[in-house]
Amino acid sequence: MATAQIQHSPSPPPQPPVAQTPGPHAAQFQKLFGDALSHVLRTCSYSKFSACFPTPAKYAPQTLTSIWQQITTKVEASAKKEFEDIMVERDVVAGLNELERLVAEAKGRRKTGVEVREPPHTLPPERLFLAHLAPYLAQTETELDGELKRLQAENEELVDGIQGQQEETERLVGGLETFIADLERANEVMGSEIDGNGVKRETADIEQEFRTAGREAKL
C-alpha cells in the first residue's frame, strides 16, 4: 500500500530583520539634533555669559572662562546622553528604518501596479485580531450612531414639549393673576357699599331712639 505524501505549500521567506544601523532618515534625524544643539551652545557664547557677571569678567576672566566651558560642556554632554537614551528607549532607528522599507515597497507597488499581499500566517497576532474584529466594530459603530440620532430626536421632542408646557403654564398664571385682581377690585367695591349701608342703619337706629325718648318724655 503506497503511502500518500502530503505536500505543503512552501512558506514565504520571513521579513528581513530591521537593521539597527541608522538609515537615511535616522541619520538625518540625528544630524538635525546635533545642529540644533550646536546652535543652542553657540547662542550661549562667552561674551553673553560674561556680560551677566561683569565683576568676575573684569577681575578673574580666566576663572570665569573655565566656569563657562564647564557649564557648556556639561550641557552638551547631558543633552546628547538624554537624546541617546530616548533613541534607544523608543527604538527610533528601527522605526525609521522600517518606515523607509514600507515607503520603498509602496513606491515599488505604485510603479508596477501590483499589490503584494502578505500571507495571513506571517502577520502578527495584533493585525489578525483587528482584521477579524473590524466588521463587528463597524457594525457596532453604525448601531450606536443610529441609537444616538434617535436619542437626539427624542430629546428635541422633549425640549419642545417642555417649552410648550412652560408657555401654557405662564398663560394660565397670567389669567389667574388677572382673575385675582378682578376679585380684589370687586371686594373693594362691595366693601365700600356694605360700609355705607351700615352707616345708614346706624343713623336710622339713632333717630328711632331719639323719637322713642321724645314720646316717653311727653308721657
The portion of residues assigned to helices is over 70%
C-alpha end-to-end distance: 166 Å
- Individual helix count: 6
The major sheet is characterized as: none
- Dominant shape: elongated
Explained architecture:
The protein has helices spanning 24-43, 46-51, 54-59, 61-89, 92-112, 125-218. α1 (24-43) packs antiparallel against α4. The longest helix is centred in the last third of the chain and has 94 residues, at 125-218. The N and C termini lie far apart (166 Å). It contains six helices and no strands.
What's the structural blueprint in terms of helices and strands?
Layout: H1 24-43, H2 46-51, H3 54-59, H4 61-89, H5 92-112, H6 125-218
What is the compact description of this entry?
This protein is mainly α. Helices cover 80% and strands 0% of the residues.
